[in-house]
Hints:
Pfam family, one: CbiQ
Main location: membrane
Shape: flat
Keywords: Membrane, Transmembrane, Transmembrane helix
Protein name: Energy-coupling factor transport system permease protein
Strand order of the largest sheet: 1-2
Number of domains: 2
Organism: Salimicrobium album
Mean pLDDT: 83
Amino acid sequence: MYLNNLxxxxxALTILGLVVALALxxxxxxxxxxxxxxxxxxxxxxxxxxxxxxxxLIPFTIFAIGMLWTTIAFADAPKNPAETIGLIWWEVPRExxxxxxxxxxxxxxxxxxxxxxxxxxxxxxFLLSLMQQxxxxxxxxxxxxxxxxxxPMLTTEFRQIRAAHRVxxxxxxxRWKRYRRFAVPLLAGAIRKAERTAVAMESKGFTGTxxxxxxxxxxxRKKDWLFPAGMGAIFLLLILLSLRFDYFSWYxxxx
Length: 255
């Protein structure tokens, strides 16, 4: 699919730019429509498991609803607001409702853009792209890559240690003491793996210099620029719609 084959650095910089642009807006319509457009783009042009995407989106939705409620409930409402909106059993100033909706939809917009990147990006290719396109130091990039690879191994070791302790009848104390007992063998195993990895990299001639060749070359192609152009066009179109219906607003310290 198109999003999965994009240059990761171009994708990351596009999303970062859109996040900054959305942070400067403070109307509820633009981020709400942009959230829907981002979800549509992700589902149409991305290859991933849809149910996992919805599963990860649920916590952000709950957080956005909580922010909506708390912003309305604890806002410093004026004594005589010009306009009010009836919500269930009390009247709320219209300005407070718009502020709450703007914050909530911005949370969802940031979340959907983050999920677009996470679900359509290979992390190894992303780190290679950072080294080749954005000149990230190889020492830092390969360190992050090694740590990323170690996480599943630590999970497996944790399960093995827990099973071994259970066989020996050592699982009856409190959870805090049990996890503290797991920490020492896990830390020792992690140190051994890190040392072996460092020795292996040095034996293969890894020096950390920027002037190096790569087995996998990540290039920026012409079709990669369609993503920032398309997302930027959607964003500008939504701003024009907000201006047309008189909802557009910059952030001017409304909180």
